[in-house]
Design a protein that fits this description.
eleven-stranded mixed sheet, manganese, alpha/beta, binds pseudouridine-5'-monophosphate, binds manganese (II) ion, 307 residues, Indigoidine synthase fold
Length: 307
């Protein structure tokens, strides 16, 4: 195993990613908060490994990103991925704290925002995840708006997700993205998807039907000198979805638990995901895994089209 470590920043590329960079092969970034804070073990490692394989099968190279004992990893070796999946005390690092985790030699899993920062630093243009953070319900009093949204506005990475989770205020999430000039493109549909469900009842601001068209749109933005990223929403496959009517019942229940337990800040998203997992007896996790796999496939196709 050869690792290249830069003198300035403790950064390590996996063998596979280092080789891909050298030959200019397409690379797809993957986040790690979904592994440590989004899913229980061992479902999380099964998801992470199968998602990496899907990217390889499409002719691209996966780069799961995390901070391990203060080193920023761009791509994880198999044993590192397995160890991270079993870590119970990893920090959840976003823009505010990714440098803190490195400076203080900590282990941290990167959110969408922090993964975008690391991907751009490593020259990776496409990133696949499950769902992005957004404007939380009740944000008018809590001010809880994910740093993922402002990151999309400033960092030039294409993020492929399954929409915004219905635990959020989805209309307000779309408003904030629009204010920040982030293109929101739904793949193959005119309706913006809601993570576990294909329907949100909201029209997608933009729609495109092929990876080549998405790559061409991004190239055109670059030619115009427009910086920042874009959000690709990829609806969960029909056979894996849970309808929005059914999800709303579970979400309402999870939200009332969160209120009783006075959950706030960074803990909100992981808390709601695990409550919904319990309420649906694991069915939400199956849908979550299916949609991440679906997003990895599309992200790899976009990365290949860009290369
Ligand atoms: N989507 C998932 N599971 C997750 C997340 C998203 O299916 O765990 C994580 C992502 O890392 C996202 C983060 O960036 O939740 C958003 O957290 P917050 O709302 O605290 O910004
Ligand atoms: Mn938040």
């Amino acid at each position: 195993m050869t690792k290249s470590t830069s003198q300035l920043l403790p950064i390590a590329y996996s063998t596979e990613v280092a080789a891909a960079k050298q030959r200019g092969a397409p690379i797809v970034a993957l986040e790690s908060t979904i592994i440590t804070h989004g899913m229980p073990y061992p479902g999380n490692i099964q998801m992470a490994e199968s998602v990496e394989q899907i990217i390889r099968d499409q002719g691209a190279v996966p780069a799961t990103i995390a901070v391990i004992h203060g080193t920023l990893h761009i791509g994880l070796e198999k044993h590192e991925l397995e160890a991270l999946a079993q870590t119970t005390d990893a920090m959840k690092v976003s823009r505010a704290d990714i440098a803190f985790a490195i400076a203080e030699r900590r282990t941290g899993a990167t959110t969408v925002a922090a993964t975008m920062i690391a991907a751009e630093h490593a020259g990776i243009k496409v990133f696949a995840t499950g769902g992005i953070g957004g404007v939380h319900r009740g944000a008018e009093t809590s001010f809880d708006i994910s740093a993922d949204l402002t990151e999309l506005a400033r960092t030039a990475v294409i993020v492929v997700c399954a929409g915004a989770k219905a635990i959020l205020d989805v209309p307000k999430t779309l408003e904030v993205l629009e204010t920040n000039g982030v293109p929101v493109v739904t793949f193959g549909s005119t309706e913006f998807p809601a993570f576990w469900s294909r329907a949100s009842g909201l029209k997608s601001p933009l729609s495109l039907n092929s990876p080549a068209a998405i790559a061409n749109f991004q190239s055109t933005r670059e030619q115009l000198g427009i910086d920042g990223g874009m959000l690709i929403a990829n609806p969960v496959p029909e056979e894996d979805e849970i309808s929005s009517e059914e999800m709303e019942i579970y979400i309402t229940r999870a939200l009332s638990h969160a209120e009783e337990d006075e959950i706030a800040g960074k803990a909100v998203t992981p808390y709601l995901l695990s409550k919904i997992f319990d309420i649906t007896e694991g069915r939400s996790l199956e849908t979550n895994i299916a949609l991440v796999r679906n997003n990895a496939r599309l992200a790899a196709e976009i990365a290949v089209a860009l290369a």
